[in-house]
Amino acid sequence: MSKTTDWREKEARYFMRAGRRMPILTVRGEGSFLFDEAGKRYLDFFGGPATISLGHSHPVIVDALTDQARKLIHVSNQFYSIPQLQLAELLIEHSVFDRVYFMNSGAEANEGALKLARKWGKEKKHGAFEIIAAENAFHGRTLQAVTAGGTERYKAPFGPLPPGYVHVPFNDVDAIKRATNANTVAVFLEPIQGEGGIIVPDDDYLKQVRAWCDEQRLLLILDEVQTGCGRTGRMFAYELFGIEPDIMTLGKGIGGGVPLSAFLAKEHAAVFAPGDHGTTYGGEPLMTRVGYEVMRYMVEQDLPAQVASKGKIVERRLHSLLDRCPSVTGVRGKGLMWAIEFNRDIGERLTNAALENGLIVNNVRPNAVRLTPPLTVSDEELEQGLAILEHVIEGDVAPK
Questions:
Q1: Which of 45, 125, 172, 252 is catalytic?
Q2: Which residues contact 27 (CB under 8 A, 6 or more apart)?
Q3: Count of beta carbons in the 10 Å neighbourhood of residue 374
Q4: Cys-Cys crosslink for 269: which of 55, 126, 226, 246, Cβ 3.0 to 4.6 Å?
Q5: pLDDT, tens digit, 9 for 90 and up, residues 216-255
Q6: pLDDT digits (tens, 9 = 90+) for 348-386
């Protein structure tokens, strides 16, 4: 077998080209840092995205993997396992939900939530099936999840798409009201749009949506795959907005880097019966053991409060950049989930320049860069990474 340094040739020869990669071969991670094959160190402010919640190779995760692997890696969901029971109890006890179902990825969790809503409509709302979702949203890459998403270029190659989805502008309650009809069963939203560019709604938006869903007897489903598990400075983003959804999906940060997701529901929405849903790997002992240890660490260390404090550092530095750099037209985010918007499409160029300077960020949109560092990033690492980013931005877009 040829050397790993032939990675460019291997990619061209073996991989399906379904996306673009950064031009580094990663070999090791430690805390907030990634290392390439040449030993160069990079501050990772991308994190998966928003997946490496405790940083790379955190001892809590490494110990959970090694200990559980010696005991039991996989068992069918026809049996119980201790880690699955422990994680279920922890999630329910620290949220507003009553039931949980484990899956492997955020897209799968969203699929499960959408199926649950469809069945609820069939049983509880005279066969209602339509789901109102948001433009610019992202819910995953499976066929139903991509249909629920609001980005046309992700859907266009794959028609005909599953029916029953209506899209409205995000942060527009009146648009949701106009789209509601007798067939509407649910409203499906990200509390903060992630892949759409870290779009934060008005403070009262979700409260108004919740009130409308109550009035019209609709389910409110929140996709917290990216915002959940401490990312926004609260354990779950619905807490930021003072509401309780009927169904919530989790992924990314819940496993700290291993494939684990879940959808949770209030009792009245948990209408699945045996045979309605299933998964081979979802909730297996190895992954739920990691999820349990990750979530327990977050609770015991009050990690969301730490994230809220660190978010103030990011907010201060980014608003300073906004004030002094005319080409920066906006900064937005919560906790450790931020975007910087520019007046032209320079996101990819800035991302590559940051990489050359030892910082990994993400051009979430052509004119925007996303920051989602590990929740365990230190204040010093935050300051270091933000200084690199400011240097790159000012060098590229400062007035000549």
A1: 252
A2: 35, 36, 37
A3: 29
A4: 246
A5: 999 999 999 999 999 999 999 999 999 999 999 999 999 9
A6: 999 999 999 999 999 999 999 999 999 999 999 999 999
Domain assignment present for 244 = yes
For residue 113, the one-letter residue type is: A
Closest listed residue to residue 177, CA positions, set 219, 220, 209, 200: 209
Same domain, 229 and 334: no
Active site (annotated) includes residue 138: yes
> Known catalytic residue: 102?
no
Q: Which amino acid is at 127?
A: G
Q: Which of 223, 236, 263, 342 is catalytic?
A: 223
Strand order in the sheet with 337-342: 328-334, 337-342, 368-371, 362-365
For residue 365, the one-letter residue type is R
What's the number of domains the chain is made of? 2
Domain final position from 300, 319, 338: 300
- Cβ–Cβ < 8 Å for 338, 307: no
Q: Is residue 7 part of a domain?
A: no
CATH number at residue 320: 3.90.1150.10
Shared domain for 277 and 208, answered yes or no, is yes
CA-based nearest residue to 334, from 252, 242, 230, 244: 230
Q: Which residues contact 245 (CB under 8 A, 6 or more apart)?
A: 210, 220, 221, 222, 238
Known catalytic membership, residue 252: yes
Among candidate residues 45, 46, 97, 138, the one labeled active-site is 138
